[in-house]
Amino acid sequence: MKAIIFGSPGSGKGTQAVILSEYLKIKKISLGDILREEVKKGSELGKEVKNFVEKGILVSDELVSRVIEENIKIDSFLLDGYPRNLKQAQHLEKTLAKNNKKLDYLIYLNIDEKTVEERLSQRRVCKLCGANFHLINMPPKEKGVCDKCKGDLIQRKDDTPEVIKRRWEIFSNESEKILEFYKDKIEIVRVNASEDKDIIFNNIKERFQ
Ligand code: AMP
Fold first, then answer.
1. pLDDT 10s digit of each residue in the chain, 209 long?
2. How far, in Å, are 98, 134, 151, 164, 192 from residue 68 at the CA level?
3. Partner of 111 for a Cys bridge, out of 162, 170, 187, 193, CB 3.0 to 4.6 A?
């Protein structure tokens, strides 16, 4: 199966991508994670994208498309964070078609701006393993410490109010065009993403049973 998980920053995409890819036994390809990892390693690619990633600005289409091409040669995957605009969606479609492949689903996590703001400003992530916490809904057992690996919890540089607002605006500008592009091409699975993470997951899962 080839699917995209699609939604605004803070829609719970990353969390759902992890549990859903495990459930469906397919590989999760998260572009944000790949880019952050490159920044952390200080690679050439990392240096090139550092400023963009930390400010919540989209990296150039050419660059991310190259990263994606290298990662989607496999038969089954769940794409998280790509495509983020119409040009990327068209590029993905072409790249897959060249290899006689096509997407099956787009899972759309639908949410409003206010809920996103609240979620992201309270989000903390583990510096070591990347696990996500929410200071109110999913707090760590010990303040500032990851439950899973005991790493330090930090606030992502792009989870500040101004950057959250910018990321939301970028998403809203492009999302309608992407949904329109896929409307008659693949099945769109729409889910209410304002719910609790287990409810969201059950709602997605139901559609794949
Ligand atoms: P995310 O973790 O998905 O919110 O992505 C973090 C950051 O990585 C974004 O704010 C962008 O700077 C960059 N990024 C991730 N996906 C893309 C994409 N499809 N196109 C361009 N930049 C991206």
1. 999 999 998 898 988 999 999 999 999 999 999 999 999 999 999 999 999 998 888 899 999 999 999 899 899 999 999 999 999 999 999 999 998 999 999 999 999 999 999 999 999 999 998 888 999 889 999 999 999 999 999 998 889 999 999 889 989 989 999 999 999 999 999 999 999 889 999 999 999 87
2. 14, 29, 29, 24, 27
3. 193
Whole-model pTM: value is: 0.85
Contact residues of ligand 1, CB 6 A cut-off: 9, 31-32, 35, 52-53, 56-59, 64, 81-82, 84, 88, 158
Tell how far the Cα of 53 is from the centroid of ligand 1, in angstroms. Answer: 6
What is the DSSP code string of the chain? -EEEEEE-TTSSHHHHHHHHHHHHT-EEEEHHHHHHHHHHHT-HHHHHHHHHHHHTPPPPHHHHHHHHHHH--SS-EEEES---SHHHHHHHHHHHHHTT----EEEEEE--HHHHHHHHHTEEEETTT--EEETTTB--SSTTB-TTT-PBEE--TT-SHHHHHHHHHHHHHHHHHHHHHHTTTSEEEEEETTS-HHHHHHHHHHTT-
